[in-house]
Amino acid sequence: MNESAPLARQPAQPGQPPELQQTAQHEPVLQDLRRRLRKNQITLMITGNGAIAFLIWNYVKGNLTMTFQDHQQELAELDQKLDAASLRLLLTFLGLFVVVIFGRIYVGLSARAEAKGKVKGPFYLLVAVMLAASSFFILSMELRVLPPMEDDSFGNILMAAILEFTSLTDILLLLSAAVRVRWLRRRIRQLETR
User: Fold this and answer.
1) Dihedral of the CA atoms 118, 124, 125, 128 (nearest 10)?
2) Residue 8 — pLDDT band, cuts 50, 70, 90?
3) CA-closest candidate to residue 107, choices 173, 151, 161, 162
4) Environment class of 163 (CB within 10 Å of its CB; exposed 0-12, middle 13-18, buried 19+)
5) Number of continuous H segments (helices) and E segments (strands) in the chain
6) Residue 48's CB: how many other CB atoms inside 10 A?
7) Domain boundaries in the chain?
């Protein structure tokens, strides 16, 4: 017999106390639940890393947009006719960008912590839902302005839409894994206390 292998519980015998019979009865279910929990924790860890990685993509996308498109004329015009409404709109977009940055960092780090077994509140899941909604909105806008294939910007906008779709998928998988991890932990605790 392998000394390092964990000792398996023996099947319940008819003469054993009812507590041991119930424990033996629940052991295959607990093993399956623990296996599913580990799988979902790995998914949660990977998608948490993905949420942070797509933050880097958002930064690169913003820089590439400013670099490869000629915005010099637009910036000069904006500087000349910058009124209060335009300034509020610009500050709103900058504020949303900052919220998305910190939201992705918060969601990614919280998902990683929950995957490692730390108890996290539901707030990061709410932030993840808002990130998914904003990602869906951005994706729909990118698809709406997709030019004809002959246009030079077609490839750039299509690539941005594909990456935004991947980002949306990552957040949705994160939400799904987080909910399943919470449910599995609760179910395991219930069976262990019986």
Assistant:
1) -130
2) very low
3) 173
4) middle
5) 5, 0
6) 26
7) 30-193
